[in-house]
Amino acid sequence: MSQDEDIERASRSLKAMSHPLRLKILCILGDREVSVQEIVDQVGTSQSNISQHLGILRDKGILATRKDANRVYYRVGDSRTLRLIGMMQDVFCRS
């Protein structure tokens, strides 16, 4: 992958993460695998709203999913993104 491709990918990822609700979801996920219902419970908005934002993060390659019966679990799919989220948690998610 060329430097330009890396920069494009970083730009797309950062743009996808730039919504406040998506940042909150990423702070909740961190390095864990979490069900959609757990995310809904912690964020405090509707499941359809959460699902829409999870879909954006998934489509941009930020999140990966796993289905288990009728539950869907999300996790950060790339170690580089996980490091970035860790830094964001240190700066923005800890009180």
UniProtKB/TrEMBL annotation:
Keywords: DNA-binding, Transcription, Transcription regulation. SMART domains: HTH_ARSR. One of its GO terms (molecular function) is DNA-binding transcription factor activity. It comes from the Bacteria. InterPro entries: ArsR-like_HTH, HTH_ArsR_DNA-bd_dom, HTH_MetalResp_TranReg, WH-like_DNA-bd_sf, WH_DNA-bd_sf. PANTHER family: HTH-TYPE TRANSCRIPTIONAL REGULATOR YGAV-RELATED (PTHR33154:SF28), TRANSCRIPTIONAL REGULATOR, ARSR FAMILY (PTHR33154). This is Transcriptional regulator. It comes from Thioalkalivibrio halophilus. The lineage of its organism: Bacteria, Pseudomonadati, Pseudomonadota, Gammaproteobacteria, Chromatiales.
